[in-house]
Amino acid sequence: MPVDNDVARVLGRLGLLDPAAMSEVDMQALVERAVKANRAYETWWLVKRLGEMLCLVAAPSCGECPLNAACPSAVCPPGGKKPKKPAAVNKPKAAKPARKKAAAKKKR
Question: How many domains does the chain have?
């Protein structure tokens, strides 16, 4: 099962391997041990397709990804909606002290 850039990126984002710390040969050996031989092509094709279509280098489409809920690298929760920021608490403003100088100048 070949491990190219797309496959390494997807599996790395899923936390299944570390592309920065592993050689291509080591990644391929790990994947071949983890995936049964009769499922290798199908698994490779699905992971490769995911890397080409959704799990892009610069702008991953995490909201559309079927593995979003299981992905520790997802940039938004399942459904594609970013979490809302908590509403700001409206505190009453303190009364400002009256400006005596301004009032005195107006009287002159």
Answer: 1
Range of the domain at 48: 5-70
Q: Which two tokens stand for residue 26?
A: 């080591």
Do 6 and 56 contact (CB within 8 A), yes or no?
no
- Within a domain: residue 23? yes
Please give the torsion angle defined by the CA atoms of residues 36, 38, 43 and 45, in that order, rounded to the nearest 10 degrees.
Answer: 150
> What is the reported pTM?
0.67
Contact of 17 with 7, CB cutoff 8 Å: no
- For residue 69, give the amino acid letter: A
Given a contact cutoff of 8 angstroms between Cβ atoms, the answer to whether 55 and 11 are in contact is no
The answer to whether position 106 is within a domain reads no
Alpha helices in 1-108 (DSSP H): 5-13, 24-34, 40-53, 100-107
**pLDDT tens digits, 63-102:** 899 999 889 988 765 555 554 445 555 555 555 666 666 5
- Contact partners, residue 64, CB within 8 Å, separation at least 6: 54, 80
